[in-house]
Amino acid sequence: MTEEYAASRYEDACALLPGRLRAAAMSISQREKARTEELRLRIGRALYLTTPAGETALPQTRVIRSDLEQVLDRATEYSRYTAAGTMAHGYLTAPGGFRIGVCGTALPTGPGAGTNEGVRDVSSLAIRIPRVFEGVAEPVLPELVEDGRPAGTLILSPPGGGKTTLLRDLVRLLSQGSAVCPPQRVALVDERGELAAVHRGRPQLEVGCHTDVMDGCPKHLAVPMLLRAMTPGIIALDEVALGADVEAVYAAVGCGVTLLATVHAASLRDLEDRPIGRDLLSSGGFRRAVVIEGRGKNRRSRVERLP
Predict the structure, then answer these.
(1) What's the Cα-to-Cα distance from 121 to each of 94, 127, 181, 210, 278, rounded to whole Å?
(2) Coil, helix or strand for 298?
(3) Interacting residues of 22 by C-beta distance below 8 A, sequence separation 6+
(4) CA angle, 305 as apex, 304 and 307 as ends, to 5°?
(5) 50 neighbors 35 (Cβ within 8 angstroms)
(6) Distance CA 72, CA 78 (A)
(7) Tens place of pLDDT for every residue, the chain, 307 residues?
C-alpha cells in the first residue's frame, strides 16, 4: 500500500465531515494523512486523529452536536432508517467502506430484553479508515492448500495485529482463484461490517467474485442460514470469541465445509491456554494456523501445521 493511496482514503473519509472540521483535517501533511487510522468526534472536544502512536487533537477545532448529526446524515445519504439495524449494534457503514462507531444513549427494546433498538443523543463517533492490502495473503496461500484445495485455517494475532486484513485478502484470493487453487465458493460472515463493508447490499471492499456475504448477523445464526441456503465450500468467520461462535464452527465442520477463522491469540500456546482456543483446536475443522507477529513494517506471518 502506497502513501498516496493511504492518504487518498483519509481524504475520502474527511468528505463525511462538516466544512470547518474537514478544512482542519485536510490541512495536515501527506504523511500524517497516510498514518491516520480513525477520525474521532466527541461533543465538546477537539477533533482527534488516531494513529499507531495514539490520538492527536487538531488545533482550533471543537465538535458540537450538529457536527455529529451532519456526519450521520452524509454517511446514511440522509436515510438513517436504512442503517437502523446496525445502529442498534453501535455502528453503521458509509459509502466507501467507512465503518462508523456510534456512542450515545442506548434505546432498549424493553425491560430485561438485553437488546437495543437504536441510539439517541449521539455523543461521539469514530470513523474508521479501512485500507485494503491486496496481496498480503499471497506469501502464505501455498502453505494453506493441499492437492488444490484449501485447508481449514485459523489466523492468530493480538488485537490490532492484522487478522482481519489477512482474512479479507485470503477470501479474495480463494474466491477469484490463483495458480495454486481454483476459484472457490466462499460464504463470508461479516458480523461487524469490517470485512466486506457492505453498503446497501454491495461490498465496498473487494472480497472476490464468488463470495456471498452475510452482513450484520451473529455467527451462530449466520452459519446455519448459509449452510441451508448457499451451499458454500468455504465459510469465513472473523473474531471467534464466544461459546456460540464455537457452536457455529462445529456446525460447519459437521457439514464438511472448510473453515477460515480469526481469533485473538499471540501464539498457539496462548490459544491452547484458553477454553475457546482448546475448543477450536479440538473441533477437527483446522489443519493450519497462520500466526501474525510484529507490527507495521516488521509484521510477519508464518504457517504452522496443526495435528
Answers:
(1) 20, 18, 50, 41, 42
(2) helix
(3) 14, 15
(4) 135
(5) no
(6) 8
(7) 688 988 999 999 999 999 999 999 999 999 999 999 999 999 999 999 999 888 999 999 999 999 999 999 999 988 888 777 788 888 888 988 899 999 998 777 655 555 666 777 899 999 999 877 889 999 999 999 998 899 999 999 988 788 999 999 999 999 999 999 999 999 999 998 889 988 888 898 999 999 999 998 899 999 999 999 999 999 999 999 999 999 999 999 999 999 999 999 999 999 999 999 999 999 999 999 999 988 766 788 999 999 8
Find all residues with CB under 8 Å of 8, minimum gap 6, and list them.
none
User: Cβ(196)–Cβ(205) under 8 Å?
Assistant: yes
Taken in order 299, 277, 305, 138, the sign of the CA dihedral is negative
- What pLDDT is stored for residue 14 in this prediction? 97
pTM: 0.80
Is residue 148 within 8 Å of residue 182, measured between CB atoms?
yes
Measured CA to CA, the distance from residue 120 to residue 282 in angstroms comes to: 43
Find cell 488545533 and name the residue: 59
Do the Cβ atoms of 207 and 164 come closer than 8 Å? no
**238 is written with which cell numbers?**
472473523
Please check whether residue 100 is in contact with residue 75, taking contact to mean a CB–CB distance below 8 angstroms.
Answer: yes
First CA to last CA across the chain, in angstroms?
A: 35
d(CA 296, CA 35): 11
Give every CB contact of residue 85 below 8 A, 6+ residues apart in sequence.
Answer: 216
What backbone torsions phi and psi does residue 236 show, to the nearest 5 degrees? -110, 130
How far, in Å, CA of 66 to CA of 225, rounded? 40
Q: Are strands 300-305 and 186-190 parallel, antiparallel or unpaired?
A: unpaired
Please work out, in degrees rounded to the nearest 5, the angle formed at the alpha carbon of residue 33 by the alpha carbons of 27 and 35: 145
CA distance 31 to 231: 45
Distance (Å, rounded) from C-alpha 226 to C-alpha 188?
A: 9
